[in-house]
Amino acid sequence: MPIYQLDGITPVIHPESFVHPSADIIGDVIIGQQVYVGPQAAIRGDMGRIVIQDGSNIQDGCVIHGFPNRETVLGKNSHIGHGAVIHGCTIEENCLIGMNAVVMDLAVIGKESIVGAHSFIKAHSQFEARSMILGSPAKFKRHVKDDELAWKERGTEMYHQLVSRCQLTLREVEPLRFEERDRPKMFFEIAHDLKSKS
User: Fold this and answer.
1) Closest C-alpha to 56, from 155, 196, 146, 149
2) How far is residue 178's CA from residue 55's CA, in Å, rounded to a whole number?
3) For the whole model, what pTM was predicted?
4) Is residue 194 predicted with pLDDT exceeding 70?
5) Name one Pfam family in it (predicted).
6) pLDDT, tens digit, for every residue of 11-55?
7) pLDDT at position 186, please?
């Protein structure tokens, strides 16, 4: 796993988190407990500190980079979709940032907000809690409904489970040359407590 010290500052990764071996973690990065960092993610703490709080997930191909001399903070249970770019901003707890969205310098996304896929959040933007944020440039559309927030929370809980699955069973292997007879299918069993929330 490419973990790089820079200027004498070494990343911190909680032992109960999972960082994919192809992700790059550089410099002043602090990753909390039960965090998932997916393949090809790049988290560069080479200009300012990056803090990823407990229970967050950073999916495949995301880029997280700091603004000079400022902290970039992802609050607890942040859910950062595939290919998103998070740059020098604050994402408050329990937010969802959609696939390929961009959140720019010094923006603040209030807790329990949802940013739509491909949305572009301009620098210095401020959004209150439970905002539904869509478009390019992104704008407040309405408040997040209770069922939408519950849907987001179920998705984040699945990534909490994925941390454990990866720690226990993810292994680099040589591929099979032929499909096995009666090959099992990937089956993701949603935990009982997760089902009960729905």
Assistant:
1) 155
2) 38
3) 0.91
4) no
5) Hexapep
6) 999 999 999 999 999 999 999 999 999 999 999 999 999 999 999
7) 84
